[in-house]
Amino acid sequence: MSTRSGSTEELVVRGARVLDPCSELDALLDVRLSGGRVAEIGECLRGVRELDADGLHLFPGFVDVHAHWRTPGREDEEDIESGSAAAAAGGFTGVVMMPNTDPVIDRPAVLGGLVRRIERESGVRAYVAAALHEGLKGERLTEMRLLKEAGAFCVSDDGLGTQNAGVLRNAMLYAKTAGLPVILHCEDHTLATGVIHEGIASALAGVPGSPASAEDAATATALILAAETGARVHITHVSTALSAALVGFFKRQADVTADTTPHHLTLTDDLIGSLEGMWRVNPPLRPEEDRAGVREALGNGTLDFVATDHAPHASEEKELPLEEAAPGFLGHETAFAALYTELVLGGKLSLRRLVEAMSCAPGRWVGGLGSISAGAPADLALVDLSEEWTVSERNLASRSRNSPYLGKKLTGRIVGTIVGGELVHDRIGAAFGVRA
Ligand code: DOR
């Protein structure tokens, strides 16, 4: 975890429409930040340094529990500096990094080295998921207690599903005694033999598909084991209507939460008609019925929050035919705008629920983040809901370019991101008007 101490300097953010579902705030207010925390919320607050936020919305900083910053090993695709810059550009103030790196984050020495780099290089709060199994192989458990001592925040084999239910059950039991939450990528590899969703689109394209059961069967197994072991389990990137319904059923009997991604909420598998490698992602883009199912589940809280699965890949890994391309999309920088444009302006989700699903709910899951209240960390996202912008390679802070929204016109732009009272992303610079 990054130990950002935060800015000690006082700053008053003036005149923004403050929306924080966690604290039931929705009004034009001023917010005083001091010592890296929110000090006061009120009207007509004045300060030595003021940031004029007239016309902007102020949300609790977004929290993304699923990101691949490719460090160590593939810093050509993303490193801590570029990953955290991309997160900040998307309004994210807290991120959980996945361990499918090279080397895999499965030993305390590797984890400790990463934590030290984060402390030096990250502009946002970054937490590390250590591997659940050595080498992510789903065979031998990692030394979770030692990994926790070295700074692990949770455990996950993300990128791969655990294939053996007995092994997964032991992993849950061990994680529970180590006091670590488990993030699960649910995929049965004996069913997931294709490269896209198996359905009409895959048949028309003549590309091998993987059935939805590859996700659903693994999700059902994971939920049954979570209920039995009592482990704290988070199911990530839920992409089918049935998996979402299964999560809803098991919420009554297991300590389980779940997320879905901006791409599964906004895109469908007809895009793969173009056969471009760009559209390969895991779990795959699904048909409209699944998109509608996960949207409904996010709206009613069955799916707790949004996580991006920010997965940078070098151009040479994406500019390939579907079957050869690496799976994954960039996520941080477009998440809010894609969801605001498609779901909120499209009348499918309230702005309040979107903010809750990007700030409060994942902030609660991480612990102590995602709210604007006196004493809370001064982690905030300033947003211009009226700005229209086109996603282009030129305006991405990530080191990679594999955004599924390239060329798309979106509405809603993050104009400033504050972490621990410090402005870490400032898109309009001086125009922002921090008065000293
Ligand atoms: O599409 C994906 N890409 N899904 C995953 O689960 C892993 C990720 C990656 O690491 O590239």
Task: Report on this structure.
By secondary structure, the chain is α/β, with parallel strands linked by helices. It has a domain of 305 residues: Metal-dependent hydrolases (TIM Barrel, Alpha-Beta Barrel). Helix content is 28%, strand content 23%. It has twelve helices and 19 strands. Strands 1, 2, 3, 4, 5, 16, 17, 18 and 19 form a nine-stranded mixed beta sheet that branches. The protein has an eight-stranded parallel beta sheet with strand order 6-7-8-9-10-13-14-15. Helix 6 runs parallel beside helix 7. The longest helix has 17 residues. It is globular. The model has no long low-confidence stretch (mean pLDDT 95). The site of (4S)-2,6-dioxohexahydropyrimidine-4-carboxylic acid (DOR) has 11 residues, from loops.
List its traits.
436 residues, alpha/beta, TIM Barrel, nine-stranded mixed sheet, 12 helices, 23% strand, globular, binds (4S)-2,6-dioxohexahydropyrimidine-4-carboxylic acid
In terms of topology, how is this protein built?
Blueprint: E1 11-20, E2 25-34, E3 37-42, E4 50-52, E5 57-60, E6 62-67, H1 80-89, E7 92-97, H2 108-121, E8 125-130, H3 144-149, E9 152-156, H4 165-178, E10 182-184, E11 196-197, H5 200-205, E12 209-210, H6 213-229, E13 233-235, H7 241-250, E14 256-260, H8 262-266, H9 288-299, E15 305-306, H10 315-318, H11 335-344, H12 351-366, E16 380-390, E17 409-419, E18 422-426, E19 434-435
Parallel strand pairs: 1-4, 1-5, 6-7, 7-8, 8-9, 9-10, 10-13, 11-12, 13-14, 14-15
Antiparallel strand pairs: 1-2, 2-3, 4-19, 5-16, 16-17, 17-18
The chain binds (4S)-2,6-dioxohexahydropyrimidine-4-carboxylic acid.
